[in-house]
Amino acid sequence: MHKLDIDAKGKINLTLDVLFKRPDGYHEVEMIMQTLALKDIISLKLISQPIIELKTNCRQLVRDEDNLAFQAARLMMEEYGLDAGISITLNKNIPLGAGLAGGSANAAAVIVGINELFQLKKSQEELMSLGKKIGADVPFCILGKTALARGIGEKLSPLKPLSGFGVLLVKPSYSVSTKEVYNRLDVKNIKTRPDTKGMIEHIKEQNIAKIGSGLCNVLEEVTLKLYPALNNIKKQLKQRGAMGSLMSGSGPTVFGLFESARDAKRAADDAIFRGNWIFVTEMK
Fold it and tell me: Engineering a disulfide at 153: which of 48, 52, 136, 161 sits with its beta carbon 3.0 to 4.6 angstroms away?
């Protein structure tokens, strides 16, 4: 095998709770994460020179050591002493700085892809542990589907997979700094926290109405104050039939949950959302 294409799926948070700030500077979290059909495509190819090449259709994306896909390739080559080079072509569909884990998904795809390309036969658990060195969301992006995440996001427990429910993503033109949002969060005075146990039960039941009503992300307390227009997007999604609406990650993307992608498409056709990046997808 000399080349391989692999999917890098985006994610949303159905719940996101921040418990406390750890001595190492990270925040202890508890959250339920869900992959989407929205994806980037990563093409990997072996090359004879012992280098890493990175090409992409996204002009705004860095192509050097600051890119998570590049970092993932370098980590795999160093960790396993790989003696060939790798060419990465990154076809981006997930917007940058959206709270949808696009960069982490790209890194995860490179790790999984190199494992296949070089026939390393490393376990998913080992690859997830390695991915943690790149970023807290990378292990989940390797695992995929529906999962409860604890620690800094790397301690994962798979849940009954959700699939087929419609998701309408709405992202304004600006991006949000995750670091700034966490720095501004007053953990001791968070007003509303998610009922994580309750949400796990709703997921077991595959009850999209209850899942929609249980959506909760404590980072909204910061981001929605900085960008009040996001509140309006949430309200508009609910008015157009969403079972529930929430900001993903630290934002600024807001999503609405629907029974089906068809229902999400009907809401997306409304002129009220024009001027934003809009995408209809589904849980997968």
Answer: 136
